[in-house]
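Fold this sequence, please.
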Amino acid sequence: MDMMTTKQAAVKWGISARRVTALCTENRIQGAVVVGKMWLIPKTAQKPEDGRSTRFEPPMDTPVKPFLKWVGGKAQVLNEIRQQYPAELGRRITKYAEPFVGGGAVLFDVISRHRIQHAYISDINKELITTYTAIRDHVDDVINELQRLESNYTAADNALQKEIYYKNRQRFNDIKLLKNSTIETSSLFIFLNKTCFNGLYRVNSHGNFNVPQGSYKNPKICDVKNLQKVSSLLQGIHIVCEDYKQSGTFIDKNTFAYFDPPYRPLTATANFTAYATSGFGDNEQKELALFINEISARGAHIVASNSDPKNADVKDNFFDNLYAKHKIIRIGANRAINSVGGSRGKISELLICNT
């Protein structure tokens, strides 16, 4: 009988080799046998159905960190956001949606602490979603490639690191839209995130990533243990590259939905996060508010984050008027993206809640 390795089965079935090994151990692949220290699988074997779409796994004992640095990331204000989680999260409310997933700080907090049956995350950043999917399905391959990138970069002197950074940035822009580049694209996405200026993701009018190199002496590019934990948490989660409105087919009265859209700039010159070639201006903020009102009417529990215009103009009631039907909470946050270090400091941000 013709046999294949777990790695070959992983490529054939579109899942990680680690997941294939787990399926073999659970006796879920017919005809799989151990030879020496490795599993061999009949080439005619069928991929088992994924029984993990209903999660109900016990919460993790150790916290999981976002695997990316992210502008406006929510790690520093997570305690304040956590206070707005629904009281029945993990009991009656067993679904979670995050349509602007970004770095995923709230996502990882929710699914590692609460019993969530079904989860949905999305973003319009194709490379970000490719990376989430690759970590879920092919984490071992991503780790191997990241370790190679990290080894080459950290062993180089400053001049060579600069050369490596810009060479990898060009490679990322060249291959990110190619088919069959999932592992390399995802690995380069993480590499650039860890070595660029402040973890900023910015593209030019042609859609090319154009952030300069950061000044890090010894960046931690590949955190193996955390990536493995992230992969475990992402199993069974529906990950899509879509506009936030598509989440409307998933969200219902049993859903906790968290929205972290591109923030409204506080000043005319503050819109430094050209996250995608399409913008997210006041009209888009208004459309999002209408969508939030719509799913709120279905009974979903909603929390949304945004900037507080009153930091720049105390008379600016844009969000106060837009979300007049909901509760608006002002919280403090340190925001550090500014070329002038003295301008970095604590400002207020908004949490918009429907309960």
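Residues 126-154 form the longest helix (29 residues). Confidence is low (pLDDT under 50) at residues 337-343.
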